[in-house]
Amino acid sequence: MDDLTQIAFDAAPIGLVLTEDRIIRACNATFVQMSGHTADALVGQSFRLFYDSDAEFRQVRDIGLDALRRDGAYCDERMLRRADGTTIWCRFRARSLTPDTPLARMVLSFAPIADAPAGPSLTPRERDVLTWLARGMTSKEIAKALGLSPRTVEDVRARLLRKFDVPNAARLLARLSRSG
């Protein structure tokens, strides 16, 4: 990479990451700052670093695979777990450079929806449910994806609504979109 390209990469206003088979090969200064890790601690690491469990890591992998195979691109909103354990709500975009094997080489971007997480801290289960809610899934669909009962998902949704003092999931997502 020439000097100007490197400067542009590092100074981009969104977090940029180049991955190979979900291993970080390069990331810019913005992503380093967003994640709370050092660049040296990120390069060569699996994206597993950002998930609470192997199961969550596998589930997230599969979410956009069909779109990546079909279109070479995928986007959604998701939580990024930082080095200190806090999370930041991000707009996530992925573009595969190898459409036949989408995860072999990808460029990812992470744009914070707000600069800092707002509201109460979330449990791993609340974060899981919130991530699936942001994708427009129903409680039954979330339950199936997470291997839970629909009642458990409803309980978690109710707890999220109380924590954020909102009347419904749409308001919850809107609040997180506006305030992080």
Automatic annotation (TrEMBL):
> PROSITE patterns attached here?
HTH_LUXR_1, HTH_LUXR_2
What's an example of a GO molecular-function annotation for this chain? DNA binding
GO BP terms, alphabetized: regulation of DNA-templated transcription
Q: Which residues form the signal peptide?
A: none
Where do the HTH luxR-type domain residues begin and end?
Answer: 115-180
> Keywords in UniProt for this one?
DNA-binding, Transcription, Transcription regulation
Concerning PANTHER family, the annotation shows:
DNA-BINDING TRANSCRIPTIONAL ACTIVATOR DEVR_DOSR (PTHR44688:SF16)
Q: What is this protein called?
A: PAS domain S-box-containing protein
| Organism, scientific name | Lutimaribacter saemankumensis
